[in-house]
């Protein structure tokens, strides 16, 4: 059971350490560049990143729902 929890927590940790900070940096960078105007290539890249982040967010939510169903107290384990 612990290995299942560990395997499911890993994507959450990866998201928190890598995807979320990159998303925040890109978000605020894009806000700054919107004032300057984005090129079509930049806009395309930004849209691709947004799609990837949304997919990752959905995956994490699914993993959290699975963990909530299988082990309701998993959030308390640190």
UniProtKB/TrEMBL annotation:
This is Envelope stress response membrane protein PspB. InterPro entries: Phageshock_PspB (IPR009554). Residues 39-66 form a coiled coil. Keywords: Coiled coil, Membrane, Transmembrane, Transmembrane helix. GO terms for biological process: phage shock; regulation of DNA-templated transcription. The keyword Membrane applies. The keyword Coiled coil applies. The chain crosses the membrane at residues 6-26.
